């Protein structure tokens, strides 16, 4: 195990392979403890974790909260509707307040790409990006990778098809960086309007048809159509989108017979994914993704807290 060289976890881009592998190994051990119902309540004892969410979230916020509690941290949830940010307080005023409260770990979700990185420059706490705009969502990519590794035994050499609204997806961006760092082959699949222009430069294959995009894929990762981030008419209609890009049993048959199906949630059933596929225990690992989310966040909190001790 290498000492983790970063104070914060703001992105997967730039995180070197051995540290990703270490985080996954540590998360794997937490997954095991969680299944055995064991907790480690002394590890973060006396540490304060603040969940600062400027955007809605169900599973990510809950998952960080549970992870922190299992490690014994004191946790406060601040969501935008209850904070004074609504009253015009700037992000930097918020940072000063958090510093005065001697926060150790700060989990931030924000609608603007780069907001957690800006906060990280102004607070003493270790900052974890829980999703910023369309930029990155590093813990989601780690939990996806852990889920894949558990099911497939490895990441290297796998073909992963990331499908749908790649343009607006911070999940896709973090996954692309992580999977490429771990030597997986990555394809993005979607209509030209929903594939970012820089996709090819990132080193992924671009496909506009599900049939070619899913061919021989080991992993089919579906993304939510993010209507709240769309400005123009990027997709004709939900029904039309489903016809061409929605994952159903017929399209899944184009992938490898043992391909697994993933979705970060929340799902638009009948838009990007058919319920019959999402709920098929033989193919879907969506529940396991949520389970691994807690284990991965425990590993991240544990790792960054160790850094705080080292730097104290
Ligand atoms: C994602 C997010 O918020 O980036 N959800 C999540 O964290 N599980 C994806 C999404 O909103 O579609």
Structure description:
This protein is of the alpha/beta class and 312 residues long. The chain is 39% helix and 14% strand. The chain is built from eleven helices and nine strands. It has helices at 17-35, 59-70, 91-100, 115-122, 138-152, 170-181, 210-214, 238-245, 249-252, 275-278, 286-311; strands at residues 48-53, 74-79, 105-110, 126-132, 159-163, 185-189, 205-207, 219-222, 260-262. The strands form two sheets. The chain has a five-stranded parallel sheet. Helix 2 (59-70) crosses helix 11 (286-311). The chain is globular and about 55 Å long. Bound molecules: N-carbamoyl-L-aspartate (NCD). N-carbamoyl-L-aspartate is lined by residues 59-60, 131, 137, 140, 170-171, 224, 226, 264-265.
* N- to C-terminal distance: 21 Å
Alpha carbon gyration radius: 19 Å
Largest sheet: 5 strands, parallel
**Total count of helical runs of at least 4 residues:** 11
Helix content: 25-40%
Spatial order of the strands in the main sheet?
7-6-5-8-9
């Amino acid at each position: 195990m290498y000492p983790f060289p970063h104070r914060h976890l703001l992105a997967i881009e730039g995180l070197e392979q051995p540290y990703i592998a270490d985080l996954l190994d540590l998360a794997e051990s937490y997954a095991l403890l969680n299944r055995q119902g064991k907790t480690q309540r002394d590890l973060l004892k006396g540490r304060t974790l603040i969940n600062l969410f400027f955007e809605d979230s169900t599973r990510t916020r809950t998952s960080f909260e549970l992870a922190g509690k299992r490690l014994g941290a004191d946790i406060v949830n601040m969501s935008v509707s209850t904070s004074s940010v609504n009253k015009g307080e700037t992000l930097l005023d918020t940072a000063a307040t958090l510093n005065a409260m001697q926060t150790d770990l700060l989990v931030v979700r924000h609608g603007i790409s780069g907001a957690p990185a800006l906060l990280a420059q102004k607070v003493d706490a270790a900052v974890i990006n829980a999703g910023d705009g369309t930029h990155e969502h590093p813990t989601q990519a780690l939990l996806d990778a852990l889920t894949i590794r558990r099911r497939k035994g490895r990441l290297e050499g796998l073909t992963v098809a990331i499908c749908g609204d790649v343009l607006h997806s911070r999940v896709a961006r973090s996954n692309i960086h992580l999977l490429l760092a771990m030597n997986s082959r990555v394809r993005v699949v979607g209509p030209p309007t929903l594939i970012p222009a820089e996709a090819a430069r990132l080193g992924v294959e671009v496909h506009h048809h599900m049939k070619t995009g899913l061919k021989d894929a080991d992993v089919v990762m579906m993304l939510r159509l993010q209507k709240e981030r769309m400005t123009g008419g990027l997709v004709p209609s939900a029904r039309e989108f489903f016809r061409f890009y929605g994952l159903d049993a017929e399209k899944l048959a184009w992938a490898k017979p043992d391909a697994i199906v993933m979705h970060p949630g929340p799902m638009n059933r009948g838009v990007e994914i058919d319920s019959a596929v999402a709920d098929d225990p033989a193919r879907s690992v969506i529940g396991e993704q949520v389970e691994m989310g807690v284990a991965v966040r425990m590993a991240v909190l544990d790792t960054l807290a160790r850094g705080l001790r080292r730097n104290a």
